[in-house]
Design goal:
Order of helices and strands: EHEEHEHHEEEHEHEEEHEEH
Number of strands: 13
Largest sheet: 5 strands, antiparallel
Strand order of the largest sheet: 11-10-9-12-13
Distance between the termini: 14 Å
Helix content: 25-40%
Strand content: 15-25%
Shape: globular
Number of helices: 8
Radius of gyration: 18 Å
Structural class: alpha+beta
């Protein structure tokens, strides 16, 4: 029986950034008719599809309310609308921190509230944003009040985190899960200071295949367990998850971000079978 699957991008990237080059063929092998569409294309009947898979909806940040309304209108959305609502505001990091997960220390500063800055180097970013837009690094002792004020003026909550110097030498480690099960990992170079892609939606990244050490895998598993509990779902209900980790000053891994909405999944940085693992997870979601 043929089923329909729509991979979802945005107007600037209606067929993604090329990361999913092998995914349509894998889905086709498992009996899907596959197409791409921008999430705000009114000509597309998303509600009629068997699976609607968020991939490169990277223009959502300035239109988050509209985007979330659209998510709510799509019955077969992967990941589901409730997950997108929770995950597109980085305030979830504070919830995971409160749940006992090893997270990069995170302070949220709501509009109108005063900010206190770390004595060490730190990063300020909007709690709602994609592709590192609006993120800025400040040296120890620097005053980021003007940047916080500009974020507040745009209606954003500011998120303040101590800068993890390991990013300069080791970068980040991204662990990818399909249907709650580990698939592969890739390394990401430092983002701050990178150049913007031609689309204007994300910063370019230096990516490479990686083999995660045991402590990183253990933390990623803890992160997914805690997030699933907070969301009131089973891990298997997450079609995909990307757990971004960095090393803290003590050498232990810390969660930087948990990407459950529209992350690149590193298909180009891993084995060819990853696309089939992903396609199989799509079928699992329908079951």
């Amino acid at each position: 029986m043929s089923r329909t699957a729509i991979l979802v991008g945005c107007a600037e990237l209606p067929e993604g950034d090329g990361d999913e080059h092998a995914v349509p063929a894998a889905l086709t092998e498992l009996g899907f008719d596959v197409s791409w569409a921008a999430w705000d294309d009114s000509r597309v009947d998303f509600a009629a599809a068997d699976a609607v898979i968020l991939r490169a909806t990277w223009d959502y940040a300035p239109r988050r309310a509209e985007f979330l309304d659209w998510c709510e209108s799509v019955p077969a959305l992967c990941n589901p609308a409730a997950v997108a609502r929770w995950n597109t505001d980085k305030s979830y990091l504070a919830e995971l921190l409160d749940a006992g997960v090893a997270v990069v220390p995170t302070t949220l500063v709501e509009p109108g509230e005063p900010a206190k800055f770390p004595k060490s180097a730190y990063v300020v970013k909007p709690s709602v944003g994609a592709g590192s837009r609006g993120a800025a690094r400040f040296d120890a002792g620097a005053d980021a009040s003007a940047h916080v004020a500009s974020l507040h003026a745009d209606g954003h909550t500011a998120l303040i985190q101590p800068y993890q110097s390991s990013v300069d030498t080791e970068g980040e480690l991204a662990l990818v899960y399909f249907g709650g099960i580990y698939s592969h990992a890739f390394a990401k170079g430092a983002m701050l200071g990178s150049t913007m892609d031609a689309s204007g939606l994300y910063l370019t990244e230096q990516l490479a295949k990686a083999e995660p050490p045991a402590d990183a895998i253990a933390l990623a598993e803890d992160v997914l367990d805690a997030a699933s509990a907070l969301l009131g779902i089973l891990r298997a209900e997450l079609l995909y998850a990307r757990v971004d980790l960095v090393r803290g000053a003590d050498g232990k891994p810390l969660l930087l971000e948990l990407e459950l909405t529209e992350p690149s999944l590193g298909f180009r940085q891993t084995d060819p079978a990853a696309a089939m693992r992903f396609a199989s997870a799509v079928r699992q979601q329908l079951a």
